[in-house]
Input
Amino acid sequence: MKLGVIIQARMGSSRLPGKVLRLIAGKPLLAHVTGRLIGLKHQVIVVVATSTQTQDDAIATWCGQTGIICFRGSELDVLDRYFQCAQQFGFNHIVRLTADNPFTDITELDRLIEQHLTQKNDYTHSFGMMPLGIGAEIMTVDALQTSAVEGMAPHHREHVNEFIQENPERFRIGVLDVPASKKAPELRMTVDTIADFDHACRLADICAPEWLSTERAISAC
Output
């Protein structure tokens, strides 16, 4: 069984261009995303999946400098980018993360992976309970392939997971329950705007960002 964590990243954000390499507490946002994964108990292969566009050369360069595996594919067809990446590395299961979420809860991600594998799910997620940007999702490569072959709507190609979510009768789907102390779905801990970025910088000042717990982040909001 080969488990991959694929982090989608690109420089071309319309609301906050170049955000994935903006510095938070002295390190690029993307470094916080990858850095937190060191705490995972499950053995994974981490890949940053960016586009072939010239503007994303900076991401590929950063990956090369830091020893992170980089895959390059379609800029707009993110679903195909994920599928081609999974195929190239021979993954059986794929954790999907995005480069604008520097505070992923690693404890809950470990629990998510364990539940997914134990229940033999096609797709498992932890969205809708913790603050936006804290949760994650994992899917089998078979579910990803079905999405890539059959999910032809523009939003399927852009968001990767929506074909699965829209066809629950076709997939075994699990939802991770999280502790009450981490439930605060009304809060934002993603980085999509300059206000989000400033908020992330304030959270990063509390302690080393890679060790910032969800509970402490919630109490600081």
Observations:
- Residues 3-220 form a domain with the Spore Coat Polysaccharide Biosynthesis Protein SpsA; Chain A fold (CATH 3.90.550.10).
- The first strand starts at residue 3 and ends at 8.
- Residues 41 and 109 are 10 Å apart (CA to CA).
- Strands lie at 3-8, 23-24, 27-28, 45-51, 69-73, 93-98, 123-125, 137-140, 173-175.
